[in-house]
User: Which sequence fits this backbone?
């Protein structure tokens, strides 16, 4: 039966709605790993050494701890490793990682999927030794744990095996690329894993991350790379018998809050790495402490607008104020146009399922565009200040009349 003429517009609307829903759903599932969340101007601390807490039950998979960034506080903080229930049978965890992006360290979020993808070659331990996962495998809807790398109570969990894993990756460096970072690139199968169906961190992981962020003891400037809560048996459980402390801290690689910090693993590299705090940062007022130069215009702070001049001539002051307002309005429009242009390119990359290398190239170009715009606006503001009229000179003060000398008495 063919649709009537009246039904055709409704069918078109239905098809359009379905396409919009599909477009909105794709980034959440297919681009979780390659969503660039933040860029920092200095490297994260090295990984601390800690023991793995015992697995709380069947179906829990180990998710290693990592350093995250708190932009409000301007510091790295430790997200403890923990056991998490897999969202679906057959799904494995690809850990988050940091990688040098050309002008700063870029964070790549972890994800759940049928295949473990690229996580920077970072040796997180407990089966995550830089490539893939050696801690267990799925057999239909049951997960079998490798006791050689996992802490499992065999009286509770019986689906176990024991396979020795040779780990030649002994470094504790927590980032890929750049000076001193892990020199690894994704293999073809790891690149394919980023484009297969996968899921973002589950709600328990997000709550775990929020709890870590709000805990001052987990900040690198407080624990000096040796967190008191290095791992937990369950997400968000930061107290009790399931909490494990770090046995050895990781070296801190600079940052304004860590300059001259003492303690285990701190110092040593601070002087060298503090030079990287302002990578690409020619205008310090446009960036937060420790943050690399803003990549996109919406990451810039509001423009500091100067108050109206006070030359004593109302007409001159009003004319200059209009010129100043016109300049600020034009700069705001340029910010908005550049932000819209860059957002369109992000959407295009998402539709094309672009790989990490392509996305990093685009982010580097966006950062250059933003820097050039900031520099251009700064020069405009400086020229405007040079044209600011000088205050009207005050009239000369009249000298007081000289008093006549008193007459002498005879």
Assistant:
């Amino acid at each position: 039966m063919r649709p009537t003429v009246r039904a055709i517009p409704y069918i078109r609307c239905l098809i359009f709605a379905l396409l919009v829903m599909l477009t909105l759903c794709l980034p959440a599932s297919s681009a979780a790993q390659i969503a660039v969340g933040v860029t920092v101007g200095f490297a994260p601390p090295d990984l601390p050494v800690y023991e793995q807490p015992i697995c709380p039950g069947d179906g829990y998979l180990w998710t290693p701890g990592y350093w995250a960034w708190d932009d409000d506080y301007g510091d790295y903080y430790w997200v403890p490793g923990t056991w998490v229930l897999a969202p679906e049978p057959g799904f494995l965890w690809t850990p988050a990682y940091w990688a040098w992006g050309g002008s700063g360290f870029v964070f790549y979020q972890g994800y759940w999927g049928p295949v473990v993808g690229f996580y920077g070659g970072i040796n997180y331990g407990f089966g995550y030794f830089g490539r893939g996962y050696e801690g267990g495998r799925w057999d239909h809807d049951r997960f079998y744990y490798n006791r050689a790398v996992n802490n499992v109570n065999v009286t509770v969990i019986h689906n176990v095996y024991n396979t020795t894993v040779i780990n030649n990756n002994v470094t504790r460096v927590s980032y890929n690329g750049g000076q001193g970072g892990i020199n690894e690139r994704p293999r073809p199968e790891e690149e394919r894993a980023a484009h297969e169906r996968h899921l973002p961190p589950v709600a328990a992981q997000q709550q775990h991350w929020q709890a870590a962020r709000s805990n001052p003891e987990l900040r690198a400037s407080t624990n000096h790379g040796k967190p008191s809560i290095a791992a937990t048996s369950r997400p968000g459980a930061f107290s009790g018998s399931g909490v494990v402390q770090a046995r050895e801290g990781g070296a801190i690689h600079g940052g304004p809050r860590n300059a001259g910090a003492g303690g285990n693993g701190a110092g040593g590299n601070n002087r060298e790495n503090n030079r990287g705090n302002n990578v690409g940062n020619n205008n310090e007022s446009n960036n937060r402490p420790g943050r690399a130069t803003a990549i996109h215009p919406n990451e810039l702070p509001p423009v500091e607008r100067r108050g109206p001049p006070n030359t004593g001539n109302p007409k001159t002051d009003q004319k200059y104020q209009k010129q100043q307002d016109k300049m600020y309005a034009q700069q705001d429009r340029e910010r908005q146009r550049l932000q819209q242009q860059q957002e369109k390119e992000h959407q295009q990359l998402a539709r094309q399922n672009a790989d990490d290398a392509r996305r990093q190239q685009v982010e580097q170009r966006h950062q250059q565009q933003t820097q050039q715009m900031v520099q251009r606006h700064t020069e405009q503001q400086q020229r405007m200040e040079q044209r600011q009229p000088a205050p009207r000179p005050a009239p000369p003060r009249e000298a007081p009349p000289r008093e006549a000398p008193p007459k002498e008495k005879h």
